[in-house]
Write a structure and sequence with these properties.
By secondary structure, the protein is mostly helical. It is built from eight helices and no strands. It has one domain: MetI-like fold (Orthogonal Bundle). Helix 1 crosses helix 7. It is elongated, with a radius of gyration of 20 Å. The model has no long low-confidence stretch (mean pLDDT 92).
Length: 200
């Protein structure tokens, strides 16, 4: 396949990965908050861990009867793959906030909501950023399997190279996925360093 086809597949791969990551954050961060502040912690963490243990290819197959082929089953499977690091890190970050800082906030008259947004959230951003980074990397790598449900992406290039025994096409797909993963890691690592976390 030409480099033009690779770039088109790269664009599809990035869009699919972004959709899956956004869905993961929308659901995963509130679950992490719930795990940190409610009695459902063990159940939530167990659910996130269980979702991650299901093989992505098997989950894609199970989703086809209900969601059909294309983007929907791919996004759900990638969400399941990436949910655990987001939930676990959000929970860990919020639980790591020193109780002395919380008590100081209460002594200053801050409400529970103010304590959460002005103290707990800023102090947990480092943990949360690390979880998002891990989730993004898993999604970028796992999105190659989306080709099996017709969702496109760089998996199409890799499978085409394997089916046609074309080493050039295969290497173009593999190297592009690797470079995208490295770029994703670098971008989110930079973002994590840019996060300003107040000192307790």
């Amino acid at each position: 396949m030409s480099w033009h086809a690779v770039l088109v597949a790269l664009g599809d791969h990035v869009i699919l990965s972004a959709q899956a990551l956004i869905c993961t954050l929308i659901i995963g961060l509130p679950l992490g908050v719930a795990a940190a502040y409610t009695k459902a912690r063990q159940a939530i963490l167990a659910f996130a861990a269980l979702a991650r243990t299901i093989p992505s290819l098997a989950l894609l197959t199970l989703l086809i009867p209900s969601l059909g082929i294309g983007t929907p089953p791919a996004v759900v499977a990638l969400f399941a793959l990436a949910l655990a690091p987001v939930v676990i890190n959000a929970d860990a970050g919020l639980r790591a906030v020193p109780s002395a800082v919380i008590e100081s906030g209460r002594a200053m008259g801050l409400s529970s909501r103010a304590l959460f947004w002005r103290i707990s959230v800023p102090l947990s951003l480092g943990f949360c950023a690390a979880g998002v980074r891990l989730a993004a990397l898993e999604i970028v790598a796992g999105a190659t399997l989306a080709t099996f449900v017709g969702a496109g992406g760089l998996g199409d290039i890799i499978i085409n190279g394997l089916q046609t025994n074309n080493d050039v096409t295969l290497m173009r797909g593999v190297m592009t996925v690797a470079l995208l993963a490295l770029a994703t890691d670098a971008a989110f690592s930079l973002l994590a360093r840019k996060v300003k976390v107040p000192q307790a």
